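Lab notebook page, bench 4
Experiment: in silico fold of construct C2
Operator: M.H.
Input chain length: 332 residues
Purpose: comparison with the prior construct
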Amino acid sequence: MLPLPIGRYLTSLGAVNDYYRLKGVSEKSSAYCTDKHLFHKTLAQQGLRNSEHFLVPCGAEKFSEDISSIHYPVIVKPRFGSGNRAVQVYQNSNELKKQFIRNMPYEEDFIIESCIAGIEYGVDAAIIDGEFYLILLREKLLTPYPYRQCVGYLSVINNNDNSKLINSVIEKISNAGKIIGLEHCLLHADIIFDGQDIFIIEMSARPAGHYLHNIFTPIATGVDMISEYVKSSLPQLNHKYSFKPEYTKCLLIKYFDFSEKHIATVPNKNFICEKYPIKAYECNLEDGVFLHRVTDGHSIMGRGYYIVEGNNRDELIGISNEIERHFITESR
């Protein structure tokens, strides 16, 4: 049995591993993955995370730190949690004070950070017996400000054009894993690349959700992360394991991110799958449904997704646009 809790509950898995002396993430290391404030402090002390960062305790009246010198835009997010819940970008101090500090949306701690410029990526990886394995790097497609929710991923091909990015990811993520004590675990991370170096947004000792580790990554690389992890965790069975990709296909996974639209007509699945280079397709939309604005990662997942293969990034985006034009939509 392989328990895979998400969000803050990762610490439960760490506690179980510690108690039974199992391989995998420890309770201490899982705390770094689930507490964004602790994660920042620990990596910043080691020079691996350079950003302005403020903790906002539960209840706006308790927040007394001087943030007048902070550089905008800033990103605000809950101290604990996953799926980009309640994450929002503010462009200036007036927005931050009026929309957030004077009206905190939830009864919990938040953090305020400088919003780092660059392209966002997701990382699928593993750390086994002290060795870091990069399985797949995924470029994110994001909604416009202020929410910046991920609505799709493009696989990044390991070639000369991307060598600087990939080498930087391997170096930074593996070093960060050592600092927070990750050992014998699957790993996903979110990063930003500014063209020179990477900024680690967050890391977690578990595989990525959102149809990634179990569908997108195996199709893109030939690596089933869960199967290989189970093999690596049971050496007495003498099963060989490998996290090295057999290949990296040029793929896009796109979630249905229609915003403030009525879906008048949903196209036939067979028509879409026959007309386009579809590798996987699941659509849970129905005629007549109204889709609200995408403001967090959880709200979009139930809508479905599709995975297409192409020769390059531009071609994949073009195919995606064509597919979504078959959905007849009406504005409110």
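Observations: The chain has three domains: 7-48+117-237, 53-114, 251-331. The chain has a mean pLDDT of 90.
Next step: discuss at group meeting.
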